[in-house]
Amino acid sequence: MNDLLEYWEQDQATDVILLYLETIVDPHRFRLIAERVGRKKPVVVMKAGRTQVGQSAAGSHTAALATNETAVAALFTQCGVIRAKTLEEFLALATGVSNQRLPSGRRIGILTNSGGPGVLCADSCAAEGLMVPELSKETHSALAVFLPPTAALNNPVDVIGFASEDQHARAVATMLKADEIDTLIIVHVSVRTEDNPPVAAGILRGIQAARQTIGKNKPVYICWMAEGDLDRTFTVDGEIIPTYRYPEIPALVVSRALAYEGWRQQAISQAPRDSDIDLSMAKSICAKAISERGSGWLTAEETHAILGAMNLPLVQGTVATGAEEAAKLAQQIGYPVAMKLASHTIVHKTEIGAVRLNLANEQAVREAFSTIQARLAHVNKLDAMEGVLVQPMLSGGVEVMIGVTRDPLFGPLIAFGLGGIHVEILGDVQFCLAPLTDRDAADMVKAIKGYRLLTGYRGQPAVDVKAIEDILFRISHLVEAIPEITEIDLNPIFALPEGQGCKIVDARMRIESPHPEV
């Protein structure tokens, strides 16, 4: 498949590449080739086998949210592939991107002879993130000159069921010439079988007239719901007009084409590299842990040491093995403090009540230590307690998370989303494959549904998005360089106001021995 991509890249007779895939044998090579090819020719892919049983016993939030399908979706997004989920979409995209120029904007004009299908088309445009704008006074007035008083002159424009050939021709030309329209979708439903040929002729005349004027660069798509005439095709001076049977399909084609064109127009992205890191130290920590214990979760000290080697902004804290030591540390840090279980075998500390926040004095610290001990004893896991991590409490900012899970085929899959204890419930997470480029990191942050929280919402200050992106780059570099790291959860990360950076409050890291017998 990768060889065919490279062949079709050079083939002058190929304008659009269509791939039906059941597996991707070499995702890294596919990414390199598809990203290069996609800048010249659209690559449309239908990937079978999209569903599978989730990971029911995942060890981290990131692993619970990620599946093989997640990795496939991330790969296609990063290398500009246009994805189809059904055979109908696959064929519709094939005709759409091969026969029309790519749209230049999201403003859609809809021309129909039947209100219902026109509304369905408008709904589909909205669902696909497209706009159906109000028509200008000039366009409205131009349409009113030749359309009957019963016609609806708003967008969608309804020329009514018995509009003539000439009325269709003038309406199509008028819509294509309108400055407020980037793309025209024509929806026709047959009222009488004998009306279909003149309507088709009028549509062709209108497109031809517009192509000779300022409307020449605008894509046109047709939904032809004409009983007894469903196989009609439309060609204007050698230009094929894509034709579909249902009013929802053109909106999907335009949306995918726009996303592809937006990707194609972006500058070629780079994978930043940081000079202020110590990868050799991070590697030695992982190697030592594997030699001593084999695969598993790193201790809090090991995890913090690796994050420190990557110069990541971890909230400082120290592990205490007893209540007295915890009280002394809290006094040194300054109240209020947070106390969390330190254990490399118990991952989800909140679920067993092993996280205590806003401890305001020495008594509260001692009681929190005793409570955590008692909780572990109650579930017969006291031997898993290495101590407690005492940290200063943070306030302000927005809680986010960054994680990594390693797919056996696709490699490191990096996650970003809103953080805290509700991350799996909200599921507001975006994934990308390593290595991350500058565009990948920016797109991940902007793509979450909660992005408005990061830009300032209801009087709250905007957070330091660049600092979030910097953490993403450093984590990408880390997991690229050390394949033994299979899972990372940085949750929560407090994204502070612009210029103040981020603070990683809690971190977990899992390693796997490259040799199972070790």
Short overview:
Among the domains are: 2-97, Rossmann fold (3-Layer(aba) Sandwich), CATH 3.40.50; 100-265, 3-Layer(aba) Sandwich (Rossmann fold); 316-393, Dna Ligase, domain 1, CATH 3.30.1490. It has 18 helices and 21 strands.
Which stretches are low in confidence, meaning pLDDT under 50 for 5 or more residues running?
A: 53-61
What is the annotated CATH architecture of the domain at 100-265? Answer: 3-Layer(aba) Sandwich
What is the assigned CATH homologous superfamily of the domain at 100-265? Succinyl-CoA synthetase domains
SS element count, helices: 18
The best one-word shape is elongated
Distance, first to last CA: 37 Å
The CATH topology assignment of the domain at 100-265 is: Rossmann fold
What can you tell me about this protein's structure?
- This protein is an alpha/beta fold and 518 residues long.
- Among the domains are: 2-97, Rossmann fold, CATH 3.40.50.261; 100-265, Succinyl-CoA synthetase domains (Rossmann fold), CATH 3.40.50; 316-393, Dna Ligase, domain 1 (2-Layer Sandwich).
- The chain has helices at residues 2-10, 27-38, 61-65, 68-78, 87-99, 115-127, 137-146, 165-177, 196-211, 249-265, 279-293, 300-309, 323-333, 362-378, 423-426, 438-447, 451-454, 465-481; strands at residues 17-21, 43-47, 82-84, 108-112, 157-158, 183-189, 220-225, 234-236, 239-241, 243-244, 296-297, 318-320, 337-342, 355-359, 387-392, 398-407, 411-418, 429-433, 485-495, 502-504, 507-511.
- Strands 11, 16, 17, 18, 19, 20 and 21 form a seven-stranded antiparallel beta sheet that branches. It has a five-stranded parallel beta sheet with strand order 5-4-6-7-10, with helices on both faces.
- A hairpin with a 2-residue loop joins β8 (234-236) and β9.
- The two termini are 37 Å apart.
- The model is unreliable at 53-61 (pLDDT under 50).
